[in-house]
Amino acid sequence: MPIFLLEEKPVFPPAELADKDGIIAVGGDLSPERLINAYSQGIFPWFSEGDPITWWSPDPRLVLFPGEIHVSHSLRKLSDKNPFKLTCDRAFEQVIEYCSLPRDKQKETWITREMIDAYTVLYHSGFAHSVEVWQDESLAGGFYGVSLGRCFFGESMFSRVSNASKFAFIKFAEKLFEQGFLLVDCQVPSEHLKRLGAREISRANFLQILQKSLKYETRTGKWDVFATTS
């Protein structure tokens, strides 16, 4: 399949035309309109510093469905102790900055300054959201993503305290599914997310469920899903 070169208009070719690696297009920009159009078609940006913006729609796709969350014995014990305070959309800029830091043995990160700026704009537009994990008033972990309709697209997570982001991810997903969300998109294969219950489905299946989720109104603005969390 050819890789498409994007023009100024924030439009994309059908995701089904992605190449065998999942790349559908290069170029364009990270404007809110283009990002929202991309996610609504099952496409997301992923590139390194100095490279052109690259747009992906992998096949298969890693997703988490309602009723399929797996809580390990260690996470269940952690949940019983409830050592963290969870919030939503309280410190988006801090969360994405922490997520952008290179992991162990990595020299660079795909969350470039351009990406940070773009998703911060998307946050202030009400479409991007962060989850924060607090321990003794310090940020212990968190993650961020994008929400359209009844689908949440997870982007990246970080932990400064063991299992902090996993704990938050499980609690957050449970809240979303209680509110009628159809799936959490985890994008590409990840062993630690598979251990939490995520599984791979075909791109065709993912796009079908995504279009169903987009029939529901998008809940924009700042979220408060942990309002009753002690």
**In the CATH hierarchy, what is the architecture of the largest domain at level 2?**
3-Layer(aba) Sandwich
Strand content: 15-25%
| Overall structural domain count | 2
| Biggest sheet descriptor | 7 strands, mixed
Structural class: alpha+beta
Structural notes for this entry:
It is a single chain. The mean pLDDT is 92. This protein has helices at residues 32-40, 73-81, 92-99, 113-124, 164-178, 191-194, 203-213; strands at residues 4-6, 23-27, 44-45, 54-56, 61-64, 85-88, 128-135, 138-148, 151-159, 183-187, 199-201. With 230 residues, it is α+β, with helices and mostly antiparallel strands. It contains seven helices and eleven strands.
Keywords:
230 residues; alpha+beta; Aminopeptidase; 7-stranded mixed β-sheet; 30% helix; 25% strand
Write a concise synopsis of the structure shown.
By secondary structure, this protein is an alpha+beta fold. Helices cover 30% and strands 25% of the residues.
Topology:
Layout: E1 4-6, E2 23-27, H1 32-40, E3 44-45, E4 54-56, E5 61-64, H2 73-81, E6 85-88, H3 92-99, H4 113-124, E7 128-135, E8 138-148, E9 151-159, H5 164-178, E10 183-187, H6 191-194, E11 199-201, H7 203-213
Parallel strand pairs: 1-2, 9-10
Antiparallel strand pairs: 2-4, 3-4, 5-10, 5-11, 6-7, 7-8, 8-9
